């Protein structure tokens, strides 16, 4: 239902309107009294005339003993009675004030009904938001997805989606597969299996029919969970090569070529890039360093474990936050390698930051304006580190660079399940409480010292340069931008 917009008025305007209404009422009352007085005078004259006529008519009956005097008195009185009694127009004049009163009464009744209807509408407008409470934050309405509509869009039983993508969709939806690298790897393996099982229809080209076949699968994954930047860039890379296949190539050769492209992308852009980042980041770790990290990042875990294997003596502070507590997973894996660790929550970051010498953070994506998109809470850690003059290093592969521009975490983000923040029994029936579970936030480039990539250790503002130098393989599919 559309909300009725009520115009707000100042006190001076309200008082002026009230004074004007009072003056109008006083003038109406004066006019009504003047009419009543004038009509009353006319009625009194008519009553006096009718009384004279009746008295004159009664006199002959009383003075029946004086026949001589009666005709002299009756003649003029009879003439007056004949002139004044048959006057229907004057009777209408006597009825005018009553008609005016009835009309005014009707107008007052109509005005009162209109005021009652307006007040009812106003009360309904105020009550509608309370009744239609759906536990949504208005600032993030564009990020909410209706679960019922998404369930209808799922193509599990349609036969158009490969079982590998159905399994992947369930894993993404239930957060079994989380993290940008793991999501990208799972997506590429499912895509590789789908292409190997694909059969080209008769009298159709392989590349075009494969593109049509992958459409429903991508839509199915998008309904389960939006694509990450890493998945988007990987899919664009594969589609860029699929569309450039020759029309004379056989299906077996085409499948083999695409599988080699996917495997080379996994090896070069993810595995070898991570190895190069580990080597560059280990050179920045010195003995007796206290490294602070936030949440869980597979790349940060690899850097710390390999640095410990090279006999570097350092300790780690793991900062964690609700609702997923991913830092516990990193803590368990570091403790297995006998790395001394300290575990704190995000609220204690300002207290523990005085002990840290470096901050290592993972990244979901690097934007074209130099902003770093990471899990919610990363910007707070970077801000506290900047206050204590602790260098902040962000570890990120170049395949996560994107030409998207974003300055806040409101325009584009992902929402988690509200029940993970707190049980539904605590907020579902409370219309004043609405939990919000944001997955990512955006960190400004002035809070970050450098970005460690497989190319080199670069500043955040070098993202457009890297995108320009790399081959133009990601400008084909604009569906996910």
Q: Assembly state here?
A: single chain
CATH architecture level-2 label of the largest domain: 3-Layer(aba) Sandwich
Biggest sheet record: 7 strands, mixed
Q: Tell me the number of helical segments per DSSP (H or I, 4 or more residues long).
A: 15
Q: How many independent structural domains?
A: 3
CATH topology-level fold name of the largest domain: Rossmann fold
Can you write the helix and strand succession as a string? HHHHHHHHHEHEHEHEEEHEHEEEH
Q: Find the structural class using helix and strand composition.
A: alpha/beta
Q: What do we call the CATH homologous superfamily of the largest domain?
A: Translation initiation factor eif-2b, domain 2
Number of extended strands: 10
Strand content: 5-15%
Low-pLDDT stretches: 1-6, 56-98, 121-132, 473-481
> Percentage of helical residues?
40-55%
What is the averaged pLDDT score?
Answer: 80
Can you give a write-up of this model?
54% of the residues lie in helices and 9% in strands. The protein has helices spanning 11-62, 69-84, 88-131, 147-153, 163-173, 180-197, 206-224, 229-242, 251-282, 298-309, 327-336, 349-352, 378-387, 424-427, 463-469, and strands spanning 289-294, 314-320, 341-345, 358-362, 365-366, 372-375, 392-395, 440-443, 450-452, 457-458. The chain has three domains: 16-131, no CATH class; 147-273, Up-down Bundle (Four Helix Bundle (Hemerythrin (Met), subunit A)); 288-469, Rossmann fold, CATH 3.40.50.10470. A seven-stranded mixed beta sheet has the order 3-2-1-4-7-9-10, sandwiched between helices. Strands 5-6-8 form a three-stranded antiparallel beta sheet, covered by helices on one side. It has 481 residues and is of the alpha/beta class. The model is unreliable at 1-6, 56-98, 121-132 and 473-481 (pLDDT under 50). α11 links the parallel β2 (314-320) and β3 (341-345). α1 (11-62) packs antiparallel against α2 (69-84) and α1 (11-62) packs antiparallel against α3 (88-131).
């Amino acid at each position: 239902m559309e909300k009725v917009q009520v115009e707000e008025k100042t006190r001076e305007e309200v008082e002026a309107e009230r004074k004007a209404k009072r003056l109008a009422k006083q003038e109406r009352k004066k006019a009504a009294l003047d009419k009543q007085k004038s009509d009353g005078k006319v009625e009194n004259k008519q009553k006096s005339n009718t009384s004279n006529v009746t008295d004159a008519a009664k006199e002959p009956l009383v003075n029946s003993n004086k026949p001589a005097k009666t005709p002299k008195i009756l003649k003029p009185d009879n003439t007056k009675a004949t002139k004044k009694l048959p006057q229907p127009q004057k009777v209408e004049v006597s009825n005018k004030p009553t008609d005016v009163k009835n009309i005014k009464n009707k107008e007052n009744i109509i005005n009162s009904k209109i005021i009652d209807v307006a007040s009812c509408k106003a009360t309904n407008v105020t009550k509608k938001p309370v009744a239609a409470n759906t536990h949504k934050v208005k600032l993030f309405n564009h990020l909410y997805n209706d679960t019922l509509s998404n369930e209808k869009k799922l193509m599990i039983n349609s036969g158009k989606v490969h079982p590998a993508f159905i399994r992947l969709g369930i894993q993404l939806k239930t957060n079994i597969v989380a993290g940008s690298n793991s999501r990208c790897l799972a997506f590429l393996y499912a895509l590789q299996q789908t292409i190997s099982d694909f059969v080209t229809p008769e009298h159709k080209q392989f590349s075009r029919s494969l593109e049509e076949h992958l459409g429903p699968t991508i839509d199915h994954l998008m309904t389960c969970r939006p694509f990450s930047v890493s998945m988007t860039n990987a899919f664009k890379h594969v589609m860029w090569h699929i569309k450039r296949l020759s029309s004379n190539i056989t299906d077996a050769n085409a499948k083999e070529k695409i599988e080699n492209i996917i495997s080379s992308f996994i090896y070069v852009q993810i595995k070898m890039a991570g190895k190069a980042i580990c080597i560059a980041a280990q050179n920045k770790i010195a003995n007796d360093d206290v490294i602070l990290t936030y949440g869980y990042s597979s790349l940060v875990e690899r850097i710390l474990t390999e640095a410990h294997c090279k006999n570097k003596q350092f300790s780690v502070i793991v900062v964690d936050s609700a609702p997923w507590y991913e830092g516990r997973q990193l803590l368990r894996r570091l403790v297995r390698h006998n790395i001394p660790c300290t575990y704190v929550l995000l609220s204690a970051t300002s207290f523990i930051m005085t002990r840290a010498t470096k901050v290592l953070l993972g990244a979901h994506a690097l934007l074209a304006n130099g902003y770093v998109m990471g899990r919610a809470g990363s910007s707070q850690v970077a801000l506290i580190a900047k206050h204590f003059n602790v260098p902040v290093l962000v570890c990120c592969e170049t395949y996560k660079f994107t030409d998207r521009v974003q300055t806040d975490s409101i325009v584009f983000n992902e929402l988690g399940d509200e029940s993970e923040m707190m049980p539904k029994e605590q907020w579902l029936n409370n219309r004043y409480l609405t939990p919000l579970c944001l997955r990512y936030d955006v960190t400004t480039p002035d809070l970050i010292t450098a970005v460690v990539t497989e190319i080199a250790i670069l500043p955040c503002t070098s993202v457009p340069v890297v995108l320009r130098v790399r081959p133009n393989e990601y400008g084909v599919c604009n569906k996910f931008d």
